[in-house]
Amino acid sequence: SQELEQSPQSLIVQEGKNLTINCTSSKTLYGLYWYKQKYGEGLIFLMMLQKGGEEKSHEKITAKLDEKKQQSSLHITASQPSHAGIYLCGAPKRGAQKLVFGQGTRLTINP
Amino acid sequence: NAGVMQNPRHLVRRRGQEARLRCSPMKGHSHVYWYRQLPEEGLKFMVYLQKENIIDESGMPKERFSAEFPKEGPSILRIQQVVRGDSAAYFCASSPPGGANEKLFFGSGTQLSVL
Fold first, then answer.
1. pLDDT-above-70 percentage for chain A
2. Which residues in chain A are contacts of B33 at CB distance < 8 A?
3. How far apart are alpha carbons A21 and A3 in whole angstroms?
4. Which of B4, B35, B55 sits opposite A97 (nearest CB)?
5. Are A23 and A47 contacting, i.e. CB atoms less than 8 angstroms apart?
6. What is the C-alpha separation between A99 and B100, in angstroms, rounded?
7. Which of A85, B5, B97, B103 is the most exposed, fewest CB within 10 Å of its CB?
8. Among all residues of chain B, which has the CA nearest to that of A6?
9. Beta carbons of B103 and A103 less than 8 Å apart
10. Pairwise CA distance, residues B101 & B112, whole Å
11. What proportion of chain A, given as a percentage, has pLDDT over 90?
């Protein structure tokens, strides 16, 4: 079955620094979603990538999809305390109407 | 347009009791998904439903767990005879008719604690 592995599992960065979170799939990706979760809350949609090579940005967050590497990366520029939370990648499972998720990356921003 | 509504937010049950978790999808959404999140783990798919139909329940335990999405009213995830290992956050998501090829919108979750 398809598995998504995120790295790193946790990340602590100084406010203002850049950071990257990776999501690697064991199978071909047919799209990739990034969500953010704050402690005790639901998931907030960040971005959806549907084509190989696609790159999307929203405010200081950029996500890319490398179809050949079966990988997506999420990059945050000039991190702020509001970026803290758990970032999850999700991918549609081929032939099944559901998303499978990675285990999440816990991001802490130190002031 | 209200988002996905889940209730209750927190539910405490003693071992052996029943837990009922409710999910009202976004207006116009006909697909509902239930996920479970254990502490320090990612989201695990449980079941996918459309109105009055269970489409995929491959992630749901065979015993004690059931789900429904009736023609009228919210989707219900029911856990009978709860055990401590059922303690987790349960999230519901909904999508428009495209299913998982469309963006999923998540509720705030129900935190189930089994004493």
1. 96
2. 98-99
3. 16
4. B55
5. no
6. 6
7. B97
8. B42
9. no
10. 29
11. 69
